[in-house]
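Hypothesis: this fold can be encoded by more than one sequence.
Test: take the structure tokens below, design a sequence, compare later.
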């Protein structure tokens, strides 16, 4: 724990000094990775698959707000889907517009979470996000987590839709729209994962705000158990194709990440809890104060010298002191003059 607290203080100092460079660099890296993953999954437009385009988009998004990054990546997604089918692009655009109306209204400052959630889903580790985000951000994190999950399944459905179009199983416009709608509404994996992610964020956010001892630890355990139970029940009840082993590994890793977040961002010392009572003209207040655990940095500087140098230094100091004691002062001369006049 002490190592994590020391690391926290170092990161705070580094971020406070170089945040002007760290924030754009993080946006650049997230956007670049998202562009490359998007191009590798549904890169149907050859122009947008160029690494130079991905770098250019990442540079632009690095100096823009997080919402612009989400909008830019969404437009790239729609363009790729339009090369497959105008119907698929239209449905996707409508879903994106509906989501963004809610997103910009309720959680406009957490746009990067949509991208990160979709990326975690792509690498089969979506369970890393809900507990940590519920602890650090709270209820507003449920919106981008849900949207990121839906965006991932839009990308995943694109390959199945392309196969259906190629095989002529969906020839006219009505059949195409029916295939798209059924692909979303009947996707048991998406419904289960979306439910688990959103509910976990909400439950963890509610528990960690309770005025109980070790609220964050209780929230971590409750979130992990909730994810595990819902995954097992959903696997059995809905016959979803989720991998139980991968889900368990992701839940265990999410617990580790959540514990690190608890130590870094919260970390209270409940042994030194204080209860304060006071009143005014209208209310009587009961206050529970729990101090944070902080490291006390002692800046001790020890200067090592050998015995010979110490002896020489003592001799010099003694000589200086003897000279100062034997040197006559001006007051001594004045006293002598006074005695002479008498």
């Amino acid at each position: 724990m002490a190592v994590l607290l020391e690391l926290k203080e170092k990161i705070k100092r580094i971020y406070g000094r170089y945040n002007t460079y760290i924030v754009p660099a993080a946006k650049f890296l997230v956007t670049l990775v998202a562009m490359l993953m998007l191009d590798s999954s549904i890169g149907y437009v050859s122009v947008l698959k160029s690494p130079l385009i991905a770098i250019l988009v990442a540079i632009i998004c690095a100096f823009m707000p997080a919402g612009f990054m989400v909008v830019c990546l969404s437009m790239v997604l729609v363009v790729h889907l339009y090369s497959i089918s105008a119907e698929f692009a239209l449905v996707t655009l409508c879903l994106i517009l509906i989501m963004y109306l809610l997103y910009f209204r309720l959680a406009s400052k957490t746009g990067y979470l949509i991208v990160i959630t979709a990326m975690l889903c792509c690498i089969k580790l979506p369970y890393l996000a809900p507990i940590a985000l519920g602890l650090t951000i709270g209820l507003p994190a449920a919106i981008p987590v849900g949207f990121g999950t839906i965006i991932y399944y839009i990308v995943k459905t694109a390959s199945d839709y392309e196969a259906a179009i190629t095989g002529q199983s969906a020839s006219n416009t009505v059949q195409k729209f029916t295939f798209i709608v059924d692909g979303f509404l009947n996707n048991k994996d998406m419904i289960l994962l979306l439910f688990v992610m959103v509910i976990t964020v909400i439950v963890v956010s509610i528990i960690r705000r309770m005025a109980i001892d070790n609220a964050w630890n209780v929230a971590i355990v409750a979130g992990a158990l909730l994810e595990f139970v819902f995954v097992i029940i959903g696997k059995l009840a809905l016959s979803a194709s989720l991998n139980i082993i991968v889900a368990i590994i992701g839940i265990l890793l999410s617990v580790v990440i959540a514990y690190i977040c608890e130590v870094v961002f919260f970390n209270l010392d409940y042994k030194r809890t204080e209860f304060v009572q006071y009143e005014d003209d209208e209310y009587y207040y009961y206050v529970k104060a729990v101090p944070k655990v902080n490291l006390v940095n002692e800046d001790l500087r020890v200067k090592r010298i050998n015995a010979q140098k110490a002896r020489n230094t003592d001799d010099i100091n003694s000589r200086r002191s003897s000279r100062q004691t034997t040197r006559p002062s001006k007051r001594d001369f004045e006293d002598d003059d006074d005695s002479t006049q008498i």
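Residues 307-341 form one domain. The CA atoms of residues 216 and 262 lie 7 Å apart.
Hypothesis status: open.
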